[in-house]
Amino acid sequence: TQPNAAPALVGVHLVSASVPAPLKLRGSLTAAHRVRLGFKLGGVIASLAVDRGDRVARGQVVGRTSDADISARLRAAAIAHDKAKRDVDRIDQLFAQNAATAVLRDDARTQLDIADTQVSQTRDALARTVLGSPVTGTVMARLAEPGETVGPGYPVLVIDSSDSLVARAQVTERVRRRLTVSQPVRLETDDGRQLPVKISSVASTPNLEDGLYAVEVLIEPSSAVPPLLAGGLVKLWIEPTSGESVLRVPLDALVHRGGRDYVFIVDGEPNDLTVRRVAIDVDQGAALLMTSVGEA
What we know:
The chain is built from three helices and 20 strands. The protein is α+β, with helices and mostly antiparallel strands. The chain has a six-stranded antiparallel beta sheet with strand order 1-16-20-19-18-17, with no helix packed on it. Strands 2-11-14-13-12-15 form a six-stranded antiparallel β-barrel. β19 and β20 form a beta hairpin.
C-alpha cells in the first residue's frame, strides 16, 4: 500500500427497515407522593407509634406530644365555662324579676362567650398534640424520637403514599429521543401481570450522577389488583411511535464525535462524499438511522 494512498471505501445501500421492536426497560416502583409529617403544635414528643418500613392507613394516629399542660388548661377553661354559665342563669332569673339590669345581664353573657371560646381553643390545641397520617402508605424515615422537643411543623416522619405509584426507569439520550409524554406503555410485573399505562414524564436534563434521563409512568391505584407495592421491579414495554421511519445501517458506518453521530453519504460520484449528522438508535447490533438532523 502506498503511504499516501486513499483509504478504500465500502459503500452500503440503505433500505427502509421495519419499525423497531418494542423498547424494553427495567424500572422500579416508587411512591408518586411523599409526605413529611410534623406536629401542628410544638412540644416534647410523648410517643411515635410507627417506625421505618411500617404500613400506615389514612387517619391512623402515628404520634403524640406531651399534653399535660394543655389538659390542665382545658380543665381550668371548663371550670370557668361552668361558672360563667351559672352566672348567666342566675342573672337571667334576677333580670326577669327586675332585680338585675340589662347591662349586668349582657356582661354575664359576654363572659360566657369568652369562656366558651377559651374551651374551644384549648380543645383545638389538645387535638394538635395528636399526629395522624393523611395518606395510606409506608413509613420511609423516622426523623425524631420520644423525649425530643420539636417545633411546629418540624418533620418527624416521612411517609410514601401508596395511593398512586410511578414506575421510574433511566434511559440514555438516544432512547429518550424516542419517548414522549402520554406514549402507551405495557407494564409487566414480576408475577406476569400486565397493565396498560402511559408515560407521565420524560426528563429534559440528565442526572448529574450517571448522565441518564429519568422516565416515569404513573400507575393509578385501581390499575392493579392486588395493588402493587413500592420497591418492586417491573418491565416497561414501549411501542414505537406511529409513522416512525427508519433506515438500518451497520454500526461500522457511524462516526461518533463530540457526543454526536455522523454518516458519510455518497452524492453522485463515488468520491463525492457528504458528512451528515444524524440521530440514531441501536437495535440488535445494527444502527437504526432514525432521522436526519442536518449537515455537519
